[in-house]
Amino acid sequence: MKRMATKRMWREVGTSYLFLSPTLFVLLLFIIGPILFAIFLAFHKVQLLGTTSFEFVGLDNFQRIADDTRAKIALWNTLKYVVIVVPCQTILALVLAATLNAGLKGQKFFRIVYFLPTLTSSAVLTLIFMWMYNQNGLINHVLKAVGLPTYNWIGDPDVALNAIMIMNIWATAPYFMVIYLAALQDVPDSLYEAAELDGASAWQKFWHITVPYLRPVTSFVVVMGLIGTFQLFDQSYIFSGGSGGPNNSTLTVVLLIYQYAFKTLGTMGYAAALAFALAILIFIATLLQRKLSKEESLY
Amino acid sequence: MEMKKWLATVGAASVLFGSLLAGCSGGEKAEQTNGGGKAEEKVEVTLAGWGGNPTEQKLLKQTLDDFEKKYPNIKVKYEVIADQYMDVIKTRLAGGQGPDVFYLDAFEAPALIETGAIEPLDKYVTDEFDIDDFEKPMLDAFKGKDGKIYGFPKDYSTLALFYNKKMFEEAGVEVPKTWDELREVAKKLTKGKQVYGFGVAPELARLYYIAESKGGKVVTDNKASFADPKVVEALQPIVDMHLKDKSAAQPNEVGATWGGEMFGQGKAAMVIEGNWAIPFLQETFPNLEFGTAEIPTINGKKTTMAYTVAYVMNKDSKKKEAAWKLIEYLTGKEGMKTWTSKGYALPTRKSVAAALGFDKDPLRAPLVAGASYATVWQNGTNLPIITNNFNNQFVSAFLGERPLAEALKEAQKTANSEIESK
Predict the structure, then answer these.
(1) Which residues on chain A are in Cβ contact (under 8 Å) with B381?
(2) Is pTM, for the whole model, over 0.90?
(3) Do the Cβ atoms of A69 and B396 come within 8 Å?
């Protein structure tokens, strides 16, 4: 009897894995495999062209990060970007969602209008913005018309990264706004009614009911924002033509990884080490964020 | 978020690419079975390059058609890699899917030759091919450390001074003959922020010959040495023109993407560009009256840059004989004459240049004259790293954020530490 049972159990397990196999195969081939290979590369000096060679170098690639001036600049730029963009886009998304949820006239229309930027591919978006950022472009014309100073948005190292930040906040906030909108539907009306009876103002209701109630969603939005902003690549790539210029001001970690992997020969291992380090950094940032939000959580 | 989109794009592209490859190999098989019965098997050679303008594409197509007529058993499959050419080529070579014959810029050549991914061509060359006919500096750019030739230059471009005739007339100035004259003339041509006397590209590829004009070296022993006071001295006037005279500007300061555009839009009275700018200006700005002249002398010496591109053969190619036939034809006297006949690029063979008579063309003569004294844009395997660091810091000096000497010193330090840890 017992043997029969194990046999049947094995058969069931076998069938389940048979059904899982296409997914498992894809996962192994396209996700797990490359991750393992990247970790392997990070500990080797790699030459892929011509005579392919892998030379084990231990932690040399990681030590090199410490001596690399450009890696430090890239990290600093990325951190600056994360620290400014994540709060801005989160707050903007929350404010947009709250105003849309307030029951204004034509809110469906505004919802569509606000969401439109998210639908455009980020590469196209960057190209459109570069055109607007042009020295004689739309943005400078508007600034001049209202009497504000104009900038060389693309060519000036002091403003190039800010230009990308503005563009990215504008493009990603609506995406998180939709998530907030969905969560806002969940806030029970009874809470607001109770607050109204106590004589709370609109601002007090927002600050003491809406914001705390949305905390789990905020946590999600911030984590997704962190991961997304740490991986900034395509915008600064297109903006600077792949160089990270002017004067390294738009050089991000992922762009640096790309440069080492594909632009210079024989540094694939170092690029993999950088990527590995970035992954750890994002992991730590996410853990920190989760820890912080959990402690403040009401639930 | 963005990275995910990027990954998705790459994923989709690779799937497409994969199916494309599958399609190709299927086609090849079919062809082989078709031709299997015949004595002469039809060979298909792939040729990869970056796209040019429509006229250039037509010229190349014509050259390839002539080739196929001459060698009916060889079919050429021409692929255009429109963007990020070197990245695509390197990735495909590493993946064993490289084209049989492809373009290679002299700038990238030493590093790629060193990896051993390119076939040396000496053993294929016949006397008839006439190597001595090539301009020597252009040919030397594709020699490996072992002295073997890894590619034959298909054409080249040099730099010359482009000037706006109308603006010169209005300002009542002559075309400058020396660099000091250029600086004076630029001041007179400048009209505030509307028109700059001189449009300059603050990058090493365009400044290399100026940097070395006072005897300093940008690269020594495959390492950066551009912090040399002699190099700083040579480049200082460019920075001064921008910051002190306010007579020079880079294209993006006036909303243009490159010098030719800035010049065409009338925002610069002079730019230093190559022959690619001639057809561009004639087509895009037909009313513009411009002339070309040799680059003003520095220290009484004539100098300019030359950029050259060669056809090279993939070491892993399975059709080397046919691939050589293609290179031989494209860089031979006949093929090169067709290819360069319209003057988009200049022929690297002396005999072809003489036959086409570009040295007598008023717009192109200064460019042709430059070939004999030009510095070829290439220097060792580390030039890409050196260039990247130079450009990054030179811009900050050009914009007045820090003194040139300090900027170059730091760039040199960064470049060399990158080279050492390679």
Answers:
(1) 265
(2) no
(3) no
